[in-house]
Write a structure and sequence with these properties.
The complex is a heterodimer of chains A (about 300) and B (about 240). With about 300 residues, chain A is an alpha+beta fold. Chain A has helices spanning about 5-25, 35-40, 65-80, 100-110, 145-155, 225-240, 250-260, 260-275, 285-290, and strands at about 45, 50-55, 60-65, 80-85, 90-95, 125-130, 170, 185-190, 195-205, 215-220. Chain A has two domains: about 5-110, Alpha-Beta Complex (Sulfite Reductase Hemoprotein, domain 2); about 125-290, Sulfite Reductase Hemoprotein, domain 1 (2-Layer Sandwich), CATH 3.30.413.10. Helix content of chain A is about 35%, strand content about 15%. Strand 3 (about 60-65) of chain A pairs antiparallel with strand 4 of chain B, so a sheet runs across the interface.
Chain lengths: ~300, ~240
């Protein structure tokens, strides 16, 4: 599985320090509830019925035994001795004390974990098939691209305040197990006629109040352009998605309102500015990240 | 295996194929009957971590169905994994069956919820706490959300249950015919909503129609797709009126 490099570790450590100070100021009365709310939400902390709830990110559902032991110890020490795995492959703690949350995040950082972007109107944890890399019906193991996308989406400055939350799923199997059609963006990896890795891109799916299955916006996307293409999709959504009505704020509503052809036209127009720019993934970069996901046996 | 039906049942439901010969994936069920789906204690997490170290290269995965997976287990280790998982309550042989319920935290925890979801899941699990009957019913995905935000993916459950608020009390709307996968579909509402107490009986009656109408080897979802909502609706609400 992916291992943090010094930059990954540094930004997570710095985020813990920043959050610790924000929480200190809140508890000291220097920040109001309204001021603190977006700060805690950026770190996965909700205030629920009985207690806060901390949602810890498990990128594409992959964990090491060391990480799970840390989660066990955190649940024991700071919560009621259990956790809850969510339907987005994350782990939720139901009873942490708010004042303990900086320490919890500091503990998580020691095992390359965090709760960044597990809530709020940003790009959330990317999910995939739990059998990625081992399934007999798998054509492409999508985890290397998922990790590259995790790095791209984490702290993405343009997408820190989208109209609403944004969920991406990736899958590279014959039989979809990641519900790609029920995501804001679903990426279905396959091998094209030339034997190259390509992506069928679904957009505008989602459950919630208005359940809609996604529509294919692009049948064939070359993998090198997956970041720039997703960036174009989310930019169009960020500009035109509704912010006046929370119930109509997801990308699915925009895609329905514009129609897929007009939405695609706007995305392509935006993509023309982004394609072949710095977001292009090189073979070297893919190979570098893919090394972390080599088959075990 | 033939001499150990409990192990055989677990292999059938909780062991999944692997691309490398001699290896299998193991799904550790976080759905023991009568407990909150997806919950795991600290002690169980340590057991899973130990299993991952001993038998699966120190890694594990979580699924959107709220179970844990050891992805790379050697065939010859399956029995040892089963014994240890079973001792820790992680080997309920119900993966992909009616009691492998996807369920959000619901009104017990979540501020958004209109209704509780965990007690509904637990009551349904107890109603169907009979492995032989569960195997007879076969593959069936039942998903529960405590509100329309749908964290429990109820729209794509073969049976979907949605908690709704009517005049301050908790009610449950039932859909059938939802499905995840390449041929995904959104479920259809069968009719007016039910009280919490009615829910296990409602699921029981949906299953009765399926068992009565199914063709050989036909899954619940395929029977629903073939027949539509009508016969299910008729049976569920006929019982309700005569009750």
């Amino acid at each position: 599985m992916y291992k943090y490099d010094p930059i990954d570790q540094q930004i997570v450590n710095e985020r813990v320090a920043q959050y610790r100070d924000q929480t200190r100021r809140y508890l000291a009365g220097e920040l109001t509830d309204d001021e603190y709310r977006p700060l805690r939400l950026q770190n996965g902390l909700y205030i629920q019925r009985h207690a806060p709830m901390l949602r810890i990110a498990v990128p594409y559902g992959l964990m090491s035994s060391k990480q799970l032991r840390k989660l066990a110890d955190i649940a024991k020490r700071y919560d009621r001795g259990y956790g809850h795995f969510s339907t987005r492959q994350n782990l939720q703690l139901n009873w942490p004390k708010l004042e303990d949350t900086p320490d919890i995040l500091a503990e998580l950082a020691t095992v390359e974990m965090h709760a960044i972007q597990t809530s709020g109107n940003c790009i959330r944890n990317i999910t995939t098939d739990q059998f990625a890399g081992i399934a007999p019906d798998e054509i492409i193991d999508p985890r290397a691209i998922a990790e590259i996308m995790r790095q791209w989406s984490t702290f993405h400055p343009e997408f820190a305040l989208l109209p609403r939350k944004f969920k991406i799923a990736v899958s590279g199997t014959e039989k979809d197990r990641a519900i790609v059609q029920a995501h804001d963006i679903g990426l279905e990896f396959y091998k094209d006629a030339q034997g190259q890795m390509a992506i069928k891109v679904w957009v505008g799916g989602g459950l919630g109040r208005t359940p809609i299955l996604g529509t294919v916006i692009r049948e064939h996307l070359e993998w090198q352009h997956v970041l720039s293409y997703c960036e174009a999709v989310i930019r169009v959504y960020n500009i035109h998605g509704r912010r006046d009505n929370i119930y109509k704020a997801r990308i699915k509503i925009l895609v329905k309102a514009l129609g897929i052809d007009e939405f695609r036209r706007q995305v392509d127009e935006e993509w023309a500015h982004l394609k072949d720019g710095p977001l292009t993934i090189t073979q070297n970069e893919l190979d570098r990240v893919a090394k972390y996901f080599e088959p075990m046996p | 295996m033939a001499s150990n039906p409990a192990f055989a049942a677990w292999v059938k439901r909780c062991v999944q194929p692997h691309r490398v010969p001699g290896y299998r994936a193991v799904t550790l069920s976080l759905k023991p009957h009568g407990k909150a789906p997806g919950d795991i204690t600290s002690e169980q997490m340590h057991v899973v971590a130990d299993l991952a170290d001993a038998y699966s290269f120190g890694e594990l995965r979580s699924s959107h169905e709220q179970n844990l997976i050891l992805a790379d287990v050697q065939l010859s280790d399956l029995f040892a994994v089963w014994e240890k998982a079973r001792a820790a309550g992680l080997a309920t042989p119900n993966i992909g069956l009616l009691t492998d319920i996807i369920c959000c935290p619901g009104g017990d925890f979540c501020s958004l919820a209109n209704a509780k979801s965990i007690p509904i899941a637990e009551a349904i699990q107890m109603q169907f706490d009979n492995l032989d009957y569960l195997y007879e019913i076969g593959d069936l995905e039942l998903n529960i959300s405590g509100c329309m935000n749908a964290c429990g993916h109820h729209h794509v459950g073969h049976i979907g249950i949605l908690g709704v608020d009517k005049d301050g009390s908790e009610w449950y709307q039932v859909t059938i015919g939802g499905k995840q996968g390449n041929d995904a579909s959104i479920g259809t509402v069968i009719g007016p909503s039910f009280s919490a107490e009615e829910m296990p009986g409602v699921v029981k009656r949906l299953i009765e129609v399926y068992v009565r109408e199914r063709h050989d080897e036909e899954r619940f979802i395929d029977t629903v797709r073939r027949l539509g909502v009508a016969p299910f609706k008729a049976h569920v609400y006929a019982e309700k009126e005569t009750a």
